Amino acid sequence: MVTGPTRRPVIAIVGGGFTGAAVAANLARNAASDGATIIVFEPRARLGAGLAYDTDNPAHRINVPAARMSLVPDDPDDFLNWMAAKGEPRDDPDALAVDGNLYPRRAVFGRYVCEFVAPFLKSGKVEHRREHVEHIERRGNRWRLSSSAGTDLLADIVVIATTHPAPCAPRGVDQALRGHPRYVPDSTVAGALDCIRPDDHVLVVGNGLTAADVIASLRLADHRGPVVALSRRGLRSRGHPGEPQEPFGDFSSNPARTALDLLQRVRRALRQAAEIGTSWHGVFDALRSQGGQVWRALPVAERRRLVRHLRPFWDVHRFRVAPQIDGAILHGLEQGRVRIVGAAIEQVERRGHVIAVDIRHRHVGRRERLLFDACVVTTGPAHTGILSTQGWLADLASQGWLRLDDVGLGLACDEASRAVGANDTAERSLIVAGPLARGTFGELMGLPQVNDHAIFVAEEIADMLERPARSGQRVASVTTI
Q1: Where are the beta strands (DSSP E) in 196-290?
Q2: Which of 216, 340, 413, 432 could form a disulfide linkage to 328, CB 3.0–4.6 angstroms apart?
Q3: pTM, rounded to two decimals
């Protein structure tokens, strides 16, 4: 009997920033994908840069030492060796920090990721389509993707590797200031700060890594006016230790089952670390490295409690700014040009081009009116609105294939990173990759952890590609968790 050629399975990766590029490259490196078609939908000209690393702003630096940014787990010096071969960092005398580590500009790391995936693009193992996916729907056991360029594709596996949703400005701020010539609702847009004049009094709403980038960018652009960075708790992202420290503390052996127990363990470890001359950095590094086990041990209700009450404190200690950025902020604080305020915004009024903001200070309850010329929003991504940010995500949600996770950090998925839908079942051929999966996996924001997760997802897909050869089945149906 004569049989026709076997159809090549199609893997569609939606989003070609760091996560999507890392999944594609690691899958292409796996022999199990030799008979598969790997297509990455990414409108940008390059794969791998994405929102984080597709920037020409010289103030934007990686916030992890270059020695810890390798894409190859078995070769921790891969990024350092790549930089040496390329003569990087060039024209950047500030890249070497006082702690002896390199913190190059983010654009340099973006080129490194692009070159990591480039061989697979050249060989044809990975195809880059510079298109926006507009709609996705289920067709039998496959997925039909429609793009802005008219592509109509049937895929066996879809990987959701999209970026974070844009920040969501406080409602009162946005309603009062929309249309103001120096209102910046999303500072991650290229050139967003160009509207701010050198002597403008600037309000920065938020106090995390993005706020630190904004302050450093303004300083590098010779901005002279005062800057107030306002958040409810008045916490700012911390810097790195002055010298290397080993992780300190054991949080994964008999892990905590409540948020309160975890907090008490962290405080105890901080006291013990101080007794031997170790700073808080070592404790948080240990907690970060054990974060997956710690997170999984917590019941969902305790995860919610952790996110609601302790996440801001975790964020400012875990997600540290590069020493160069930290130095710019400290210099501004010393000069009195930067002010960190913990307060709630009670009212915003626009008086011509003057922005009047009434705030209530967090601890003393004192009210104060401040006047600004410009306002920049740097609040975190609006994860609760992720399903409405793009049409194809809304499609999958309306069909019951996607829902938000139970702690409000992204999309629901199981321990294999398979998307969990409205009926609480996981679909094997719909996979969530990257930070949007952290409701299940916990620590998925730092580059090393996102890279590890991309490798894990690639291995899961490779295993799916191998199994039909043994079982004769193309793809498994929805399985209950």
Answers
A1: 202-205, 227-231
A2: 216
A3: 0.88
